[in-house]
Amino acid sequence: MTSFQTTSTRQLFTVLTAGALVLLVVHGLGRFIYTPLLPYLVADDQFSAPDGAAVATWNYLGYLMGAMLAIRWHRIDQIRFMLPLFMTIHVVTLLIITQTDHLTVISTSRWLNGVANGVVFVQAPALILEWLVLRNRASLSGLVYIGVGLGLLVSSGLVTGSATLLEGAERWWPAALLSIPLAWWGVMQLRKLDVPVRQHDDSGKAVINTPLMDRASIPLFLAYAGAGLGYILPMTFLPLLAKMELPPGHRLLDGTWVIVALVTIPSPWLWNKLGALMGDLPALRLNFMIQLLGVLAAVLWPGPIGLVLCAALVGSTFVGTVLLTQRIGRALHPHQGPRLSAAMVALYGFTQMAGPWLTKQWLDAGGTLVSAFGIGVAALVFGLVFTFLVPRPEVWHSSR
């Protein structure tokens, strides 16, 4: 244990950087680059807006399935095998999508890319958290999610910078090429982590996989479900909404996604700090309130004001929702580790998948995209209510 406690600042920086880059690749260059790409792909006549929503749904279905695979294969030795495998799948599926305009092939590739995203998004932060816990540095775990914000900024730059140079399937090339070196370096660093395959908890007792669902965790799972459905609508359709509401050439056509990216980058540090100051559970409730105001703004004030507020408030909160919920869940079930993280991401993935599907049904029925954001408002209200039913971990454990 002595070697764990003497971990250097350089080691911490390397591990957190590797984790951040891995999330940048699968989430920024895999998942969320699709959001700023969508208006261009629709304009290129690669597919229609409803078809674009269906493609997004396939990606989120893959994300859900990937998280469920991570529930099954959650041990440290399994993670060391699966991380490089699914990072390879990420790169291969991006390369495939650069070569086709066929909707079925695109949907299949985005589904497989979502599977890779789901596995890696669970396993990389979970592996790093276990490594940090052994070194009494668990409070740093949220910094890994800085990679998500950086990924949004990088994806925005890649799409905007190549907008006049590429067309159709070619628009995926920048993401595919950048993924290769970042994915390789990140995975190689994470595979080196000294994390034993633990059969006992911190007190020396044998680890038992007790039920994940109980009176304490069920409200947290339900709150997280509301968050998944609530945030995914602006994070999928905000640039498309801007294209529908703003005149050609308006600076917010690409600017909304830039705002999301810029405010997302410092948000893990911010919510880490707020969680330490006020407690993770009160911070999570505040997080939900701010996020709710952001989605509501897009509904109440269509146009520049609503778009900017939605981008700023949702972008600055959604990563905080993830890291705070994960930490609260682990505090309620400290022996569950990666399995708990996987279960939460699977639920999150299911509700994210439902968002684009519901939007497609709404658009096909003649509804507008801005009114579809009302689905997100209702989901966040639902989630906020359940955050008040989650017990504080210390109170929960003292009562058992």
UniProtKB/TrEMBL annotation:
Q: Name one GO cellular component term.
A: plasma membrane
Q: Where in the cell is it found?
A: Membrane
Q: Which PROSITE patterns match?
A: SUGAR_TRANSPORT_2 (PS00217)
Please give, as recorded in its UniProt entry, the membrane topology of this protein.
Multi-pass membrane protein
One Pfam family cited in the UniProt record for this chain: MFS_4
Q: Does the keyword tRNA processing apply?
A: no
Gene Ontology molecular function terms on file? transmembrane transporter activity
Give the stretches traversing the membrane: 12-34, 54-74, 81-99, 111-134, 143-166, 172-190, 221-242, 254-271, 283-300, 306-325, 337-358, 370-390
Q: By its UniProt entry, which InterPro entries does this protein fall under? A: MFS_4, MFS_trans_sf, Sugar_transporter_CS
* Keywords in alphabetical order: Membrane, Transmembrane, Transmembrane helix
Q: Which PANTHER family match?
A: PTHR23537, SUGAR TRANSPORTER
Can you name this protein? Answer: MFS transporter
What is the source species?
A: Marinobacter halophilus
